[in-house]
Amino acid sequence: MAEEKEEKNGVKEDKKEKKEKQVKKTKEKKEDKKEIKEKEEAIPEEEKDSKKAKEEAKAKEEEEKEKKPEEEKRVEEAEAPPKEEKPPSPPPPSPLKKKKINKMDLAEIEEKLKEVREKMGGFDSKYAQHLLKRKEILEALKK
Description:
Blueprint: H1 2-42, H2 45-79, H3 106-120, H4 126-142
Helix pairs in contact: 3-4
């Protein structure tokens, strides 16, 4: 039991020490603040006025910078005519991009077959073979 009392006393002493440290820290902070105030008071009033003037000028400049974008937006909105809403139209197909064979209809496949015959000299290529297969499938679906 004596050991338990000693441990409790040790814990109580630790808590007291912590509180004392905290009190010292707060006192030091207060003293630091007082020193800063004293230093500011020691500065001649002319310098204070010039500092205040500079700070005010900076604040005004910042306010003007913030107001300018708002004013420009308002001017742009006023100048811009109201936009008419149009339904988005699909972009025109680019001539460079080839259409997939599975997406072609019968007329397009026949056109491509003619081009293949003229350019490649026959239907030996895989492209031509795929076109022929798709043509057969579409003809079967029509019947």
